[in-house]
Amino acid sequence: MKKQQLTHSEIASFSNQMALLLHAGISAYEGISIMNEDDNTDTLKPILNVLYKHLDQGENFYQAIKASQGFPDYYQKMVEIGETSGRLEEVMQALSVHYQRMHDNYESIKSAFTYPLIMIVMMLGVMAVLITQVLPIFNQVFQQLGSSITGFSKVVLDLGQALSSYSYIFMALIILVILLALYLTKNAHGQKILYHFFTHWHFTKNLSLKLALSQFTSGMAIALSTGLDIDQSLDMAKELIQHQDLKATLSSVQDALIEKDLATSLVDHHVFNGMYARLVKIGHKTGHMDEIMKKIADQYDQETNERILHLISIIEPTLVAVLSILVGIILLSVMLPLIGIMSSL
């Protein structure tokens, strides 16, 4: 049976610890033994047990990582390359940064999804209390004055009575929404669905492209730093992104490499423009493309976080304004006729 893969945060933490142990001159086998003794988490402990078992049998680190079934294919390939080239420490440190970035991206998306959802649920709760508890009181006041609620208020009152009669259905829907939100934010498969929805939503098109470019450039930086050639690096970096349009563009970039260098191909196919295009060309000329890709990834990461915060800052007052307007309309629709009746007495 296939084991559950580690989350991006867990992979980042594991990679960082391994990089520190390797930097201290401790072998992978000894490092896993130390981590296995100290770690008590439910998810990482079984993975460490498998890693230790295979390393103890004389297998290399890559074989142990593959056997654990806790790491994605890209991670496994990078470990194999790092171990073969003798640069495992550098690869583990780079993977730690990369998967921490992936974790931060997912957390940003969760924030952009969760906060508006909480606001919407609160809005529905306030509206439900208003039309099921407050409006009936106003209706009783109207009846005592020999009148009745009419027009828009009557429609809302009838809706409130229907909600009161079928409150169990309404509560079931709220519970389903909460369970769906937990699934999309806590479950690994649910997070993939949320990410897919976010990256394919029309209003987040530019933001999703920047997220994909951040992941692509981060992957390219690691692949190039391990000594892989351009074509292999592009193949591996493409595995990290789910943005289909960008994937198709990168395939065209690979085809163009027959006649052009990487920097020219990326710029000609509009993968990068402006400052980023100039940076890529500088990286190609100086032979430091991996470092340039890492800097571009950091910049894209910063831009996406700023845009998500800006998106949330727009959604928050908008939802508050909508709630205020709806509550105001409902209350005024009963208060104004009531004031008219009271003034005529």
Strand content: under 5%
Instruction: Detail the poorly predicted runs.
Output: none
Order of helices and strands: HHHHHHHHHHHHHHH
Number of DSSP E strands: 0
Shape: elongated
Helix content: over 70%
Reading off the top of the CATH hierarchy, the class of the domain at 205-304 is best stated as Mainly Alpha
Q: What's the mean pLDDT score?
A: 80
Provide the structure class: mainly alpha
Radius of gyration: 28 Å
In CATH, what is the homologous superfamily of the domain at 205-304? Type II secretion system (T2SS), domain F
CATH architectural name of the domain at 205-304: Up-down Bundle
Number of helices: 15
Enter the CATH topology name of the domain at 205-304.
Answer: Receptor-associated Protein
Main β-sheet description: none
Separation of termini? 79 Å
